[in-house]
Specification:
This protein is α+β, with helices and mostly antiparallel strands. It is 30% helix and 21% strand. It has an 8-stranded antiparallel β-sheet, with no helix packed on it. Helix 4 (47-65) packs antiparallel against helix 5, helix 5 (68-83) packs parallel to helix 7 (113-129) and helix 8 runs parallel beside helix 10 (205-226). The longest helix is centred in the middle third of the chain and has 22 residues, at 205-226.
Amino acid sequence: MPLPSLWLSPSRRAALAAPPPTEPWLAHLHRTILAPPPASQTGARDPAHDSHDGAISRALQALLGADPVLASQALQDWRSGLAHLDLTEDLGKAHLALASAVLFDLLAPQWSPAELATWRADSRRLADAFFRLSPGNPHHITNNWWAVTHSALYCLVAALRDAGDDEAPLPHARRSLAEIEEWSWARLDAFLGHFGDAGAYHEGLGYQGYTCAYLLPAAILRERRSGPALASRFPGLASMAELLLLSALEGPAYDDSTGRRSGWGRQLSWNDAGLDWPDNAVALLALHWAPPAKAPALLARWDRLSGHLRPDGLAPARFGALFFTAALHPGSGRDAPRPPEPDSRLSLSLCDRRQGLWLSRDRCAGPADALLGAYARCHQPGGHAQDDAGSFRLSALGWDWVLGGGQARPEAIWQSVVVSSDAPAKAQCGAVLHVSDRVFGMELRKVHAAYGERYLALHPSTSEGAPLAAAVLDLIDDHRSDRDWSWRLTTSPEHAFSPAPDGLGFTLAAPDGASLEARFLAEPPLSLALEHTPGSARTFANGTRKTYGSRPCIVATFARRPALAIYVVLTLRPAGAAIPSPVLLPDAGLSLAWGEPAASVTSRWLRPFAPALPADIPPRRLRSQSAHPAPLSS
């Protein structure tokens, strides 16, 4: 039969099968493919879900070595997973359906006619199983299930049709493969409308990675087969790679289920996602739609997080990521030099106005970069949701300082927001009020009728020894005086908490001596306490159950008053650096001082939230500091 023509081009197939490679990314890929598979692929806990990654690894080895024995074994690995599959469990079917299309793209020329016939029969049976419905099928477009299942089905049917299969209609589907291909894409076309203008997804960055591991391969395939320019209809596709890569930092991530740091890459986390950079190729797939002027810089950043420039040498391995890296990595050309300082072409700030997600960082230099993110959660039509509207996250100096509740802890009290003692239980959405590179404002009256506005600002270090700083301003207009308000910050269990002796702030100390110093510069808190989230557990679709440890949460309680302003400055310093002392100025600006008293240095942060900050805030809300002077205690 002719070569398959799904994702793997003839020229890339030839390059993969003709070692030794000369390009660094391809040499790294060869080493990864030819290395023994990790234990999770040789002793899978759940064959129906895990065997497909092992099958794809073996298939890549078969392609590199032109080995028909390995090609046959890869097919048997996949069939073993199919034999263990509960055909009423859709996400397991999606796993194996995507793997089936990948195996066909890799190995069809190496399979015997009998093996190809076996693959075709089993794949038709799997495609038909998507139409065997059960009570566990969440048939609504607002859930990631919709994209995962329809994407996998689209890719599988495209592979079958590429193999020349246009036989009788599938029994349960009662329609031909050509009809199923168009039907499944029509439903994916509808799903793509849920992404925002910067490519963010309403179920959070974690679910975006899972969803797009299926959706983006299907979208690339659709363009190749039918030719539509999807980015012209869905502009968020052009920004998705930059958004995902902006949300990530280098360095190992803390794992709530093990209590240890591992892997490479951290990502700001909303909804019930983990803190690690996902082990997939989604950001690389999204490069397919990135503007050409930004693509080299985005690729360089991806190579540092997931590719051949990773310090641990590992490549992404889940959801067929190794294959999609092999097939779709743009490469640099043998003689093309890497552009100097490629990150200078990328923005340090990005906002998706539809979803209300804002990201801002001080630089793109390495693991110590500072990254501040805020989430108004403007659009939440359904699917997974937490009470995280108005929340913010902060990572810097290699540590995660401000987090949310994490896995299976959706309550607002754990989301690093302001809550009242009678906050409504149902999650609501906020609205974007102001956006700039360093300042983000949210209007939150839908979240709580009295919770007016929240502003966040990032102040990068501007000189040697200067501290990084972030400022948070919460404005509350309460017509009642019978409820308490508390400002809450959830942080990592890695940090030690110390309240300031004057009760006007606290310190979080990381294991390496880096610290975050928080100061309440306007209204003083009545009390400052440390709470802990409960432990939690989740059972995933494949039956795997994970338990998650507690996270500490700092709670500052404020007096009941009709007009409350909570103004907090968070300064960050590496181990051994001077303790910064922020002071609120009469015009709502800040003075940041650091160093020894005899040689202190002061940096004036002019009205951090201007022009977003309402003009009457300083006299109306921000009270004098005379009652609580601001020398910062260690």
